[in-house]
Design a protein that fits this description.
Residues 1-30 are annotated as: Disordered. InterPro entries: DUF4365. This is DUF4365 domain-containing protein. It holds the Pfam family DUF4365. The chain has 197 residues and is an alpha+beta fold. The chain has one domain (32-192): Trna Endonuclease, Chain: A, domain 1 (3-Layer(aba) Sandwich). It is built from four helices and ten strands; from the N terminus they run E-H-H-E-E-E-E-H-E-E-E-E-E-H. It has helices at 11-16, 34-53, 110-117, 181-192; strands at 2-3, 56-58, 68-73, 82-92, 103-109, 125-131, 140-143, 146-149, 152-156, 168-174. Strands 1, 2, 3, 4, 6 and 9 form a six-stranded mixed β-sheet that branches. It has a two-stranded antiparallel ribbon with strand order 5-10. Mean pLDDT is 90; it is low at 5-19.
């Protein structure tokens, strides 16, 4: 789910008055809402990470507050030959790239937090937050050397986290927990050994 708060004179204002005319030399982008495009981008990121980690993906239907199930099979797993985690995706442009300090703040609806914080569970859950540039022009660059998808996803396990706000609760996402293929493999190895993500 993409989160983008309206800002005076910014994207939300522009969407309210119709699309901006294309800038000279800028590509003619489609008319999908920015938040819908953010959701698509974060799903692409998840697919790339899962592919590099050797994981399979499934999407629950209907969605009951969890976006994806990620499964990882390996003979080294001790609890089963294949383990699964549940992933809730969020995306925002309100946090700058390279967040300062050891963590950044992110606000969740309490209903989402309750689902992610449930403990104990038979299938562990993680929250993955993607930080993107405000402008779609800056989301990716492609060339012969690779595809640069910006900016980054971070993950956390919120099991046991308390609800503190009336309707929404702010959680802290560690900047050391970059969500990439190695992180996903490590998560699955811990879950496959009977531990937590």
């Amino acid at each position: 789910m993409a989160l983008a708060q309206p800002d005076p004179g910014g994207t939300a204002r522009a969407e309210a008055f119709g699309p901006r005319p294309p800038q000279p030399g800028a590509p003619l982008r489609g008319s999908l809402a920015t938040t819908a495009c953010m959701e698509t981008l974060q799903v692409g990121y998840l697919h790339a990470v899962a592919a590099a980690a050797g994981c399979s993906l499934s999407q629950p239907f209907p969605d009951n507050g969890i976006d994806w199930h990620v499964s990882h099979g390996a003979p080294a797993h001790t609890v089963d030959d294949e383990v699964t985690i549940k992933v809730q995706l969020k995306c925002t442009y309100q946090i700058p790239p390279h967040p300062a300090g050891g963590a950044f703040s992110f606000t969740l609806d309490n209903a989402h937090l309750v689902k992610l914080a449930r403990s104990p569970v038979s299938v562990h859950r993680i929250l993955v937050v993607m930080i993107v540039p405000r402008s779609q022009d800056d989301w990716l660059r492609a060339g012969p050397g690779g595809l640069d998808l910006r900016h980054c996803c971070y993950w956390t396990n919120l099991a046991g986290h308390a609800v503190t706000g009336r309707y929404r609760t702010t959680v802290r996402i560690p900047t050391s927990r970059i969500f990439d293929d190695r992180a996903l493999c490590d998560i699955m190895a811990r879950v496959g050994a009977g531990g937590r993500p």
